[in-house]
TrEMBL record:
Residues 19-428 form the Glycosyl hydrolase family 13 catalytic domain. It comes from the Bacteria. This is Alpha-glucosidase. It comes from Mycobacterium gallinarum. Belongs to the glycosyl hydrolase 13 family. Pfam families: Alpha-amylase. Keywords: Glycosidase, Hydrolase, Isomerase. The gene is malL. GO terms for molecular function: alpha-amylase activity; isomerase activity. PANTHER family: ALPHA-AMYLASE FAMILY MEMBER, NEUTRAL AND BASIC AMINO ACID TRANSPORT PROTEIN RBAT. GO terms for biological process: oligosaccharide catabolic process.
């Protein structure tokens, strides 16, 4: 098959998804906490941006230990966010505006306050005992050396029944036992319940963690560490493909409709991702891989931040483009509720380059093959928060980490510096709507401080300006819808070892695209080759860029980014 024939009909291949983190998006009732009624008032904004799908981070009843990623009832709405009636109205309005809505499905674990866990912990004979992962003490201590992703041991002792339960995340997030077919059936029933309500699919939280290695073996020891996160024993575990294929069959089999499934998969390899997203296997449509958002992690983990390495970043994303070219499909993302803001992380958030660098990074991501995801505020180039003290951090991961460092008498100043760069709260500060009080997010007291730059960095200042970051995202989304080559063209990396230029081409039987960006402040002259002479500028991010190339070389100003179009040779 030639490229031109490989036209695929899956609707999500030309779609752009927008992630809402409801507690920080829009507050309608002044309690400082975003809600569904608030989202309702902002749907026109999303329509104007042009996105196709909304993904809502969890809105289910939850003790909110991990901001809703600890669910205590999968079939209702947390009163903080609203009611099921409001949800139905929101969904209807989303559909009326021609968009779709995808729910967050968090089923590697539940809250410890979910009735299933209350039942499971009540006795060793409970019919739901085996719904979670219980083990006896080993030599008077934890069953193995597994560490939690949120610091400390992954095991919590339960005095009542003299056993430990496993929690890969916080102790308030016990892991479900997916080996038990009743658990899998219960999850499938939840999914069907939401699909029957009209939702358009699911984003599945850490779904490649659901199958744990036989016997839960110790992780290879790390000197000086009592507990070790045992990735090799739960990432892409022994039965995960079987569970996902079963889920797909049981939930979506025989259903008519246009659905989207995306699995969040820390530690997934391209080879595994190809299996998860091979349409012939019937598991998932796409996955969120983590390689490119780990290139600035140091040997001691994410808070051991080592700064930007553009070549490593490019090579990582390029590797995924190539690996999933023939089979499978990529998601494309810079941001979500767990990642620091991209303009601060990989761009340049000093005033002079703030807008240009945000647009440049958006350009190189949206020019790739895959389904782009935009996280709330990214379309405005919201930045990291100026964290100073330990009290500034609300996130459970940050708090646990800081306490663990203090406890082990580590370097607290270094811990705070790492947290400032990498804390998830960077992404979670309230959405900046306008220059009014609390950025228009709430009339009350916001649950997390608004970034002080909201006075000039806000949606109202950008939506009607042709040169805004918002307008640039609008243009990229429009191109995704209008240009088939962006969806199915081949990908060829260019100048991969250049420490400052990000460039690649896209090719189909009919056309060619050159995506090129100067990811630094210094002006650069770049040889692009004779074949691009006369190519038409489709999109640029700086004023005054000529409408076509006139020679074999380009002069790129600081953070200059362009997309050129030419017919096939
Ligand atoms: O995150 C999974 C995950 O492993 C990381 O991205 C996590 O955020 C952490 O930074 C690891 O260092 C998902 C959710 O997106 C996240 O919000 C939840 O806290 C987590 O699962 C548990 O449900």
């Amino acid at each position: 098959m030639t490229q031109g024939d490989r036209r695929d009909v899956a609707w999500w291949k030309s779609a752009v998804v927008y992630q809402i983190y409801p507690r920080s998006f829009a507050d309608s009732n002044g309690d400082g906490f975003g809600d569904l009624a608030g989202i309702m008032t902002r749907l026109d904004y999303l329509s104007t941006l042009g996105i196709d799908v909304i993904w809502l981070s969890p809105i289910y009843p939850s003790p909110q230990a991990d901001n809703g990623y600890d669910i205590s009832d999968y079939r209702d709405i947390d009163p903080r966010f609203g009611t099921l009636t409001e949800f139905d109205a929101l969904l209807a309005k989303v559909h009326e505006l021609g968009m779709k809505l995808v729910m967050d499905l968090v089923v590697n674990h539940t809250s410890d306050e979910h009735p299933w866990f209350a039942e499971s912990r009540s006795s060793r004979d409970s019919p739901k005992r085996d719904w979670y992962i219980w083990r006896d003490a080993h030599h008077g201590g934890e069953p193995n050396n597994w560490g939690s992703l949120f610091s400390g041991s992954a095991w919590e002792w339960e005095r009542g029944t003299d056993q430990y339960y496993l929690h890969l995340f916080d102790r308030k997030q016990p892991d479900l036992n997916w080996r038990n077919p009743q658990v899998r059936k219960a999850v499938q029933d939840i999914m069907v319940w939401w699909l029957d309500r009209g939702v358009d699919g699911f984003r599945m939280d850490v779904i490649n963690f659901i199958s744990k290695a036989d016997g839960l073996p110790d992780a290879p020891a790390i000197p000086g560490q009592r507990f070790v996160v045992a990735f090799e024993s739960f990432v892409d575990g022994p039965h995960v493909h079987v569970y996902l294929a079963e889920m797909n069959r049981e939930v979506f089999g025989g259903r008519d409709g246009e659905y989207l499934t995306v699995g969040e998969m820390p530690g997934v390899s391209p080879e595994q991702a190809r299996l998860y997203t091979d349409p012939a296997r019937g598991e998932l449509d796409m996955v969120f891989q983590f390689e490119h958002v780990s290139v600035d992690h140091g040997p001691a983990g994410k808070f051991d931040w080592v700064g930007r390495d553009l070549v490593a970043l490019k090579k990582s994303l390029h590797r995924w483009q190539v690996a999933l070219a023939e089979t499978g499909w990529n998601s494309l993302y810079w941001n979500n509720h767990d990642q620091p803001r991209v303009v601060s992380r990989f761009g340049d958030d000093d005033a002079e380059y703030w807008a240009a660098s945000a647009k440049a990074l958006a350009t190189v991501l949206h020019g790739m093959r895959g389904t782009p995801f935009v996280y709330q505020g990214e379309e405005l180039a919201m930045t990291n928060f100026p964290f100073r003290s330990p009290q500034d951090h609300k996130d459970i991961e940050a708090v646990n980490y800081y306490n663990a460092v203090v406890e082990s008498r580590g370097d607290e100043a270094a811990a705070l510096a790492g947290l400032a760069e990498m804390s998830r709260d960077n992404a979670r500060t309230p959405m900046q709507w306008d220059p009014g009080p609390n950025a228009g997010f709430t009339t009350g007291n916001p649950w997390l401080s608004v970034n002080p730059n909201y006075t000039w960095l806000n949606a109202a200042a950008q939506i009607d300006r042709a040169d805004s970051v918002f307008a640039h995202y609008q243009a990229l989304i429009r191109l995704r819808h209008e240009l088939p080559i962006l969806v199915d063209g081949d990908f060829t990396p260019l100048m991969e070892d250049d420490p400052q230029i990000w460039a690649y081409s896209r090719n189909s039987s009919a056309a060619r695209l050159l995506v090129i960006a100067n990811c630094g402040r210094d002006v650069r002259n770049v040889e692009i080759g004779r074949e691009w002479t006369g190519a038409r500028l489709l999109l640029g991010n700086l004023p005054g860029t000529p409408a076509a190339t006139s020679s074999q070389s380009l002069e790129l100003a600081g953070w200059d980014a362009r997309i050129y179009y030419a017919v096939a040779p």
